Amino acid sequence: MPKVLSAVACNLDANVLAACLPLMEESRVEAIEWSFDALYKVKEVPSWFRELLTAFSQEKRLIGHGIFFSLFSGKWLPEQENWLKHLAQTAAEFQFDHITEHFGFMTGKDFHHGAPLNIPYTTTTLNIGRDRLKRIYEACGRPVGLENLAFSYSLDEVKRHGAFLEQLLEPVNGFIILDLHNLYCQLRNFDISFDEMIALYPLERVREIHISGGSWDDSNADPKRSIRRDTHDDAVPPEVFQLLEMTIARCPHLKYVVLEQLGNGLATEESRRCFYNDFLQMEEIVRRNNNENGTDASDPFIPLFPLSTGTVVEDMTLYQQQLELSSILESSASYTEAIYALTQSSLANSDWRIEQWEPYMIETAVKIAQKWKK
To answer: pLDDT tens-digit profile of 299-349?
Structure first.
């Protein structure tokens, strides 16, 4: 096992930087994760931020995390082509240790305004995902990984997610970011035990772990239930630290544990103090479980065979279904309206298995999609 590094998600956000600064001044931050595609509105990155990125990249302690690629879009989009060009340019400037992206496809017509939602687990989506991962590797030349999803429509999807991730990653010999708050959302929203859930994931493919906080949302579809949401706007709950304690030693190729929080959750001195304390608690768990003799001599997550990318893999039926689903979620006035619209749509009696979807998760999907709609 390599030496595990305690890291923060550090982006060009005043609140995030203010929260990270005390940790950096104490030389506690051993690596940083940068969402390199989140600067689409920034005309020029400040020189001091470039110097920070460069300092970590020269030590091979900079990791890149994508947000907006929309891995499973059924149609190859111009925005995806531009995303890859931007990644290639950025990877030429900074020495990323690896590059990761979110699982799912983005709702919304505007590429930068959407929420990552699940897809059917089929041969079609598997081939699309594999094609896109190869293109990401081709653009950056670094190990490529995917983050497990926080949102599912059904328990069946939850149970199939780990195996599907492994199938996706196999051609690029990629890795998993095991986001433990995402896992926590699934555990709570579908009443599944940690032992049952963790057994469904290929932990030998975990190179990075995320911890973060989130929020609870009341459900009209199931008034007795509160839905756990991956909103990244609060401190890390004790249950997620417990998941870290239970998981870290099970991942033989783990290299990074990353604390994440969005800037809108770090606007006060109290919230930044909580962030600092969360990092210290994470750091202590990492320290107790670390292999002090760990080495980075070999990287287990580089392609085992030469990769080739020919014609882009697309499926227009899937794409039209994604547009239809996005439209239903973004326009429905209630979850009952969304459920009715789904039964009348092309997703009915299809590989999407909407008949198995939980009403309270359809309700949650409506809220997510409408939050991101612009």
So the answer is: 899 999 999 899 999 999 999 999 999 999 999 999 999 999 999 999 999
Per residue in 273-287, pLDDT tens?
A: 999 999 999 999 999
- What residues contact 45, with CB distance under 8 A and at least 6 apart? 12, 39
> What separation in angstroms does the CA of 309 have from each of 126, 128, 146, 168?
15, 12, 19, 15
Pick from 177, 220, 185, 164: which is nearest to 338 by CA? 220
Cβ atoms 210, 177 nearer than 8 A = yes
User: At 374, is the pLDDT very low, low, confident or very high (cuts 50, 70, 90)?
Assistant: low
Amino acid at 303: P
Residues 6+ apart with CB under 8 A from 183: 148, 197, 198, 243
Both tokens of 365, joined, read 């999907």
Q: Give me the CATH code for the 5-313 domain, please.
A: 3.20.20.150
* Exposure string for 274-295, b = 16+ CB within 10 A, e = fewer: bbbebbebbbebbeebbeeeee
Domain map (residue ranges) of the chain: 5-313
Quote the CA–CA distance of 312 and 218 in Å, as a whole number.
42
